[in-house]
Each structure stands twice: as structure tokens, then as C-alpha cells.
Fold these 2 entries.
Entry 1:
Amino acid sequence: MPIESVGCYVPGGYSPYPSSLLMAVVPAKVAKVPRIAVCSPPMSNGNLSPILLVAADICGVDEIYKIGGAHAIAALAYGTESVKPVKKIVGPGNKYVTTAKILVSKDVAIDMPAGPSEILILADDSANPHFITLDLISQAEHSPDSVCGLVTTSKELASKVIVELEKTIVNLERVEIIKKALTQNGFIVICDCIDEAIEFVNNFAPEHLEIVTKEFDKIAKQIKSSGMILLGPYSPVSASDYCIGTNHILPTGGFAKVYSNLSVIEFVKRVSVVRCSKEGLIKMVKPISMLARREGLINHAIAVEERAKK
């Protein structure tokens, strides 16, 4: 059955993200959640982005609040005079939003820790350095906290990507954000062999992993920890952010080792409904009694044994 109410956090510090609203709200609507509230920070003019409001209207959002950051998570978790609390909070955010979600998770359910965007590209000498450069830049433009990495077995490829980055970054939109992200959180790792590169990926557990190698299908089978795996040169993260069909709300910060992408499953709860006949219970008396008595719960055993006598 659906969870009674959910709060969807939609980031908006550097740009409005109607795509993130869709990714959070659509699965909740499919699950038939009766109350869906959205929180998103206002733009510099103090208003919510019109495109965000239109997306919320199309998706059938019940409530939308002009509030962002850790205090939005607190409002959804505990309520305020104007915001009713919800049963579960989903959606990505910056490090403060992610930390707030983890802190309130003792009182209200959350989907996963989904913080600043991450991309890790696993590539060999067959990869196109221009494509890799574009994908690193596209993820860097999310925020200065974005993590952008290349792990490769090719020193030549690594050198070409560095040259491409220096050449391409000069005249870009959002260049200051991109420079900060690449300077603070960008890296290139050169491995001696592909097995070493795979081990690095599994330890890093990235949000997004692009595998751009000769045998990407074979390598994909050896990846144990990643929020999303994109295969080949024509499966960029940018496409998965919008139209490929997968959900772009994914675990970050190494949490891909234990969490999956947001889906309809996150908005429903399972309830077991049991009806046992007298004959059926009698067949189970012996194992139930044995286990209960072994655990020292004598009255558990008696509650079943007495029913079998009548």
C-alpha cells in the first residue's frame, strides 16, 4: 500500500531543476501516494521558478513550499505553522540537505543520502577524449561540490583529456562553477591494468559510472557498487538526467554500496496479511513449540498448543 504522505526536496541553488521534481514526484504518483509536498529554494528574485511550478502542476503535486536547505528538511520532518510533516522525505540536495536528511532519519523515513552530483568515467585508449571532457564538464556545472573523476589505463588518454579541458573551459557558460568543481573535486587516476581500475570503481561507489572501453559489457558485470552504469560512448550521464528512462535521484558519497536509485518501491510499504485454519495451525504446533521453548518463551508455545487441543 502507498505511504500516506511524502515530501520531495527539489534543489535550486544554482538552477531550477524541474527534471528532479519529475524524478521524485512521478514514482510517488504511480504508487498512488495521497499527499505529495514539494520544497524548493527560491530564485534570486525571491520567487520559485515558473518552469518548476508548471512541472509541479502537470505532475499533480498537492503542496509546494518556497523553502530550501536544511531547514526545508526540518520543516518536512517535524512540521511548522505552515508546513505539515510528512512520513517520508526523498530527493537530492547539497551536503547540508543530505546531512539534514540523515539527522532526521531517526524520526522520519528517507530515501537515501543523495548529495552533490558525482561522475566517474572508466575508460581505455579506445575512448574519445573530447566526449570524456564534455561529460566531466557537464557534471561539474551542477555545483562547486560536484565530484568529477576519470579512471583509466591509458596515460595518453589522460593527457589528452587534460589538454581538452584546458582548451574547452575558457569560453563556457557557468565557468566559475565548473572551475571550482574541477579544481576542488576533479581527479584523474591512472591504473596499471583494467582489474585495478575496476577495484577502484567498486571502492569509490560512484553515483554515475560511465564505462567507455572496448569490452564495456564484460566490465559492467564486474561492477558491484554504482548508482547507475552507463555503457559506451553514446550513453552520457546528461541523457540519463532527462530522457533515458532511469531515475536520476541516486545515492552518492559511497552509499551506492548499499542503496539503489529512487523508484516506485520507495513509496510503498509491504504489509503481511495472514489467515491460518485450525488444521494448518495443528500441523505447525511441533516446530513452533520447539522453537519457542528453545528461546525460553514458554507462553508463546502454550498459546499455540492450547489451540490445538480444542
Entry 2:
Amino acid sequence: MESEGRTIFHVDVNSAFLSWSALKRLEEDPDAVDLRTIPSGVGGDVKTRHGIITAKSIPAKKYGVQTGEPVVKALQKCPQLVLVPPDFETYRKYSHALMEILSRYSPLLQQVSIDEAYLDVTERVSEKETSGVVCTSGGERKRAIALARQIRDQVRAELGFTVNVGISCNKLLAKMASDFEKPDRTHTLYPEEVPAKMWPLPIEALHGCGKSTAQKLQLIGINTIGDAAAADRALLQSFLGQSSGAYIWNSANGISKSKVVAEREQAKSVSNERTLSEDIGRENYQADGVPVICMLSQKVAGRLQKSGLVGQTITFQIKSSDFERHSRQMSLQAMTDRAKDIEEAALLLADQLLGGPEGLFAQGVTIRLIGVGVSRLSEKEKTVHQMDLFEWAERNEEEESRRAEAEKAQKAEQAAREKARKAEQAKKARQDKLDAMMGKLNERYGKGTIRKGS
């Protein structure tokens, strides 16, 4: 495992959504409890306590709460868990601020999600010393650690949250390093450190090795990353398939050829994926799968709106428990950036792919990853949108429905007022009759003969 001659950082926000929600809460109320210091989580419907956990605090992790699991299950593990709803507008704000800081350290910045990015800082750490002497390999590594510390300190000071920085010669090892002890840590994982730092870890800790694959490997005695590294590559390929077996063997041995690639000026598609904490089949699809599809649709819509883009082709894809990818796509009649449009199309595609007598569920396939994407993009301000007849009818029907509801409410209020008025008139009429009768009796038999009871 020889060094590739690069210095790669993987920067990962510690409990991103939870940290950013905590900061927003403290901004609004400085006396509020910091969510990062108590068992807490983000996700689901806070009132009904349905949906899934999208982020958790470190104290919640100690109770076994996992990202991606149903809220109901998380509450069973930790009944005192404090839940807050997701706030993607706030998350986008902090993500943008983080990337702006990272871009100051290297032009080779590759953002891979809202809360993590790779940086190629090779040129930065290999600069000549002021004495004119080129840094040795050891000097470059010391410089890299100092640079990582500088990034962490700046993010904490300017933005109020913490990040982990993993350092290595390739993206895979940098990613593995950033997942070591948290929060607010710098870790190195150079090739010569792999046997001591990575091989003793359980196989499921290997980046890209899902729960289902880990269980398969454990059946043949591969329990640690080191076991996979020492295994025969051909055996892994015959057991897991050519591509998956090669990936597990290469990754376990610290081999990765992927380079840090700066983002393109304009993406050809916008998509989000989620690896599930538990495989999804027919039995738990409605409870656990549908909320993930809805959440991913909202995230894709948010990214489109942030970028000022609209798209026309919706894609739904899954990765099965045996690492096979399956997808369906459809083109909408009009460009969109609305979460509702994306969600409806994605759910329809999911039903086509998974449901029915010929769907994947009927074949016994279970899902380990779900993805939703939008392609055929265009800038929103340059797109002239002409409503088709169905969209016009739908919007007209919605408007008519709102007017009808308003008229119905107004009539109900008028009827209630009229009923109350008539009731008051009837009461007054009865009282007048009673007063008249009392007056006649008192006049005939003497004052005080009859009077109102107390």
C-alpha cells in the first residue's frame, strides 16, 4: 500500500442536522438547552412521533439511537429523547458557510453531501519553507495536521459547530479516518497505519459495506476489515459478485483511485440517496420506505430551488441487499422544482418498480438504499412555463374548492348568528309572557302573591 503522493482531507460535520438545529434554537433563545448536550434527534413528525431519525446527538447515540431508524423505535430505546423538526433552510445556510470556508484552503473542493466534503491540499502542504527548503514527507504530514487544526478552529470560531478532519493519501482512507473518535478531532490514516488503525475494526465499519453485505461476509468467517483484506480476492468476487467483491477487497486494503474533482459549473442532475439502517421489504415499505422517499424528494426540491433550477425527468432507484441497482424514470409534462411534484412521481415509480406480481418485492428482493433524482435541468428564470389543460384545471379546481369552503364557512357563521338571534327572541317572548302573568296574579290577589324563585 504505497502512498499516491497526494494529501487528501475529508471534512465531516459532527451530527450536522442536530448541531445546526441546536444553533438555530440558541439563536432564537440563548437560554435554551443545547440539543448537542442531551439525548436528542432530528426528524419525523414531532407531534405524531412518526417518520425516521435523520440526525442524532452524541448522547442519543449512547442509547443506541441510529440515523435512519423509525422514530418509534428510537423512542423505545430512549424515552426521554427530545425531537425537533428538520429545518432545511437553516441547514443550507450553514452548509454554504462551511463550503465557503473550505474553499479558502484549496480550489480542489468536492462537496459530496450537505455536511461533508473532500479537499486536495497537496499543493498547500508541500509548499517550500521560508528557508527555501522543501518539506520532507514527515514535514508535509505535520503541516497537514496543522492545517486540519486550523480548519477546525476556524469553523468552530466563525460558525459555532465542530467538524472532524480525516487525512490520508486517498479519499477512501481520509473518509475512514474522519469517522474515528468524535467530535472535533483530526485523525490520520496513511497506508502504513491501516493494519493498526483499520484492520481491527468490524467489517461493517468499512466505508461502502452495508449491513446486508457485512452479514454475508460474517457467514464465511470475515468479521473484521483485516479478515477481508487477507481473504482471497477471487473468493470475495465469487461470493459477492465481481464489482462488489473487488470493491470490498480493495477498500479493505486501503486501495482507492478516486480523485478529488471540483464541482462542475452546472450539474446535469440533482439527486439524493439514503442508505437504510435496516433492509426494507414488502412488510415495512409503507412504514419505513415511503417516509424516506418523501424526505429525499424534499431534499432534492430544496437543492433545485437553492440553485435556481427546474427539471423534467424524475428518477427513482434502489440498491438491493445484494448490491444490484434498479431504477425507473419518467418525464413530467412541465418543468418543476416543487417537492410535491417530485414526491408524487417518485412514489408512482416506486410502486411500478417494487409492487405488483412482477415487482421486486414479489421476487423476494429487499432494499438497502433508496435514491430520488431530477434530470433534464434548466435555469428557472430562463424557463417559460405554460400551464397545460390539466394543470390549469387542477389549479382552477383548487381555487374553486377554496372559494366553496370559504362560502360554506361564511354561511355556517350566518346561520349560527341567526339561530342565536331567534333563540334570544324566543327567550325574551317567554319572559314577557311570564312577567305579564305574574303581573295579573299580583294585581288580582295582592302584591307579592307570586314572585320569581331565587
